[in-house]
Amino acid sequence: MIKSIFASKTQAKILDFLFQNPNQKYYQRELHKKLDESLSTIQYEIKRLIKIGILLQEKKNRRVYYFLNKNFYIYPELRDIILKTRQQQL
Length: 90
Description:
Helices cover 59% and strands 16% of the residues. It is of the alpha+beta class and 90 residues long. The chain has a single domain (2-89), classed as Arc Repressor Mutant, subunit A. It has a 3-stranded antiparallel sheet. Helix 2 packs across helix 5 (75-89). The longest helix is centred in the last third of the chain and has 15 residues, at 75-89.
């Protein structure tokens, strides 16, 4: 269900995963492994989500970490939609 709301299946998977872990930060290869998606697709979708403002990035040491922007103007609504669709799938 959630996959039909977003622009792509990978975008939905990224957001679903991040909303399950809203206080965590992940680097690209970590998301690639956890979500079982190609690295290039993860990179493409991360760029799109950053451009929209849903994701933020932070450079630490030699890695770039990505995380949810809790100040995104529809963060609470987006979180509720994702959590509700997740509950329907269970």
